[in-house]
Amino acid sequence: MARRGWTREELIVAFNLYCKIPFGRIHNRNPLIIELAKAIGRSPSALSWKLANLARLDPSLKKRNISGATHGAEADREIWDEFSRDWGKLAFESERLLSKFGGGFPSVAETTSFPEGKTRIAMIRARVNQGFFRAAVLAAYESRCCITGLSIPQLLNASHIVPWSVDAKNRANPRNGFCLNAIHDRAFDCGLLTVTPNFRVKISPRIRSIKADKAAQGFLERYDGCSVRPPSRFIPETNFLVYHNEKVFLRGE
């Protein structure tokens, strides 16, 4: 019997799942892999092998000398490159396809009140891509704050390095994100904290001029100069870090 080739739609939802599962949990016993494999008519072993093929293409894993499968189809690389060129478009399309195969995409539109017309479509797309971005970033950091190591999901945020409002093309790009606890996320967002291109925390000197209790200042300043915990994949791009350092971070007193 001839082997059935992977369709573009199957590869897109497989990549979606690759982004959302921590690297160490890619195996045929993972319930998420079992569920998606059933939905697309594949065996869990076939799907887990496909995710391993995708891992082979991940530049972040190559830097850490971690290898996926040693062989993979050219179509795998094409899907990887297509996501890399336009994360927003492919993230949204992959979530839409999950609904076709039995995923949870429709819940976003059905449980949220949106206006009609083009505005509604844009808001749905934004909400869906935000959900994809959060899932991908938290999976890359194994649901731990990269500064403190805190691992309570309800207190973790997927923080954009280049702000959402500035760079539409990279809104859903997990390489434009850090997993941070809620306090450091807010400090990062407003420029009281940055991460340098060599992945060290830098606290703004302006924190000392803010009328705040010493405990709050101390909580931030205790991590000044510390190295952030690297993700298992989707290492932040240097140009994003440079932008945050130069455009968002508050310098001087």
Domains, number: 2
Average of pLDDT: 85
Strands side by side in the biggest sheet: 1-2
Low-confidence stretches: 65-71, 104-112
- How would the global form be characterised? elongated
Task: Give your account of this protein's structure.
This protein is about 50% helix and about 5% strand. With about 250 residues, the chain is mainly alpha-helical. The protein has two domains: about 10-140, no CATH class; about 140-250, no CATH class. Helix 1 (about 10-20) packs across helix 3 (about 45-55), helix 1 (about 10-20) packs across helix 5 and helix 6 packs across helix 8. The termini are far apart. The relative contact order is 0.11.
State the gist of this model.
The protein has 253 residues and is mainly α. The protein contains eleven helices and four strands, in the order ααααααααββαββαα.
